[in-house]
Design a protein that fits this description.
The chain has 287 residues and is an alpha/beta fold. The chain has a domain of 199 residues: NAD(P)-binding Rossmann-like Domain (Rossmann fold, 3-Layer(aba) Sandwich). Strands 3-2-1-4-5-6-11 form a 7-stranded parallel beta sheet, with helices on both faces. Strands 7-10 form a two-stranded parallel ribbon. A two-stranded parallel sheet has the order 8-13. Helix 5 links the parallel strand 5 and strand 6. Helix 1 packs across helix 7 and helix 2 packs parallel to helix 4. The two termini are 34 Å apart.
Length: 287
């Protein structure tokens, strides 16, 4: 890995990848709407803009972290979701084919319906919302090109990269003394953005292809995660209240029993996938 392009470097995973990759590689990162110092603008829905940037940077590898990740936005705006998650992905893949760059695509456990989790790479996807459907289409576009890599992950958390991920929301609410309701019936295996970035960089450096699941080895509900995170960070968890998914008024359906099996990754990589306690503790200095 000598010259890398991180598309969507303003998000938590993209930012963590930039930090990780820049230690040993020349890296260019992009943003779409959230401008950040040191990043270049890229609208992946503009095929011409994508082609020009990839031709200019001439990367050997492209990490595609950019997507419309708001589940309910996607459900309310399926055309906009498709434009970014499907058409945008196609634009990147087509430009990458011309330049010969390898594409690494960040995907999600939401390609599954959450009825029989955790899921392996070979389990049949069955997305239950627009976000999951468009991400699955993106996967297929990426995998149509030889040597491409799809990384599926789960609930990703961090502090210091953005304010929208669950851990950041929990910390902000508890420090303000506000009550926060967290679903107790959606199960996953959470992973930090930094640990995920480390794992993605490693598996990509080994020139692996196909689909890899990367997540922690601990399955828990989002509520259980919130309680554990508060305890680790020394915050009062008494204002965290459990709620059922059906009690939330959300546009998109959510998979309940999700999470991913990580046996394949553990076989092919020596990177340690942290426990939730270890991963959350990593961000203590960001409180």
């Amino acid at each position: 890995m000598e010259n890398a392009l991180v598309i969507g470097a303003s998000g938590q995973v993209g930012a963590a990848l930039m930090k990780r990759l820049s230690e040993k590689n020349d890296v260019v990162g992009t943003y779409s709407s959230s401008k950040k110092k040191g990043l270049v603008h890229l609208d992946i829905t503009d095929a011409n803009e994508v082609s020009k940037l990839i031709e200019k940077v001439n990367p050997s590898i492209i990490f595609l972290c950019s997507a419309t990740i708001s589940i309910d936005f996607c459900e309310k705006n399926p055309e906009a979701a498709r434009k970014i998650n499907v058409d945008g992905t196609k634009n990147v893949v087509e430009a990458a084919k011309k330049s010969g760059a390898k594409v690494v695509y960040l995907s999600t456990e939401y390609v599954f319906d959450g009825k029989r989790g955790p899921y392996s790479e070979t389990d049949k996807p069955n997305p239950m919302n627009t976000y999951g459907k468009t991400k699955l289409e993106g996967e297929k576009i990426v995998l149509s090109v030889e040597n491409s890599l799809v990384v599926r992950s789960t609930l990703i958390f961090s502090l210091g990269y953005d304010t929208k991920n669950l851990l950041a929301v929990i910390v902000k609410s508890l420090k303000a003394g506000e009550e926060i309701k967290i679903v107790g019936d959606q199960v996953t295996n959470p992973i930090s953005a930094d640990n995920l970035a480390e794992a993605i960089a490693d598996i990509a450096s080994k020139n692996k292809s196909g689909i890899y699941n990367i997540a922690s080895n601990e399955r828990m509900s989002r509520y259980e995660f919130a309680i554990k995170a508060a305890k680790i960070l020394g915050l009062n968890s008494s204002s965290i209240k459990p709620i059922k998914t059906t009690e939330f008024r959300q546009n998109a359906k959510r998979p309940l029993s999700c999470g991913l099996k990580i046996d394949k990754f553990l076989k092919d990589s020596k990177i340690k996938l942290l426990t939730v306690e270890q991963a959350v503790a990593f961000y203590k200095t960001n409180i």
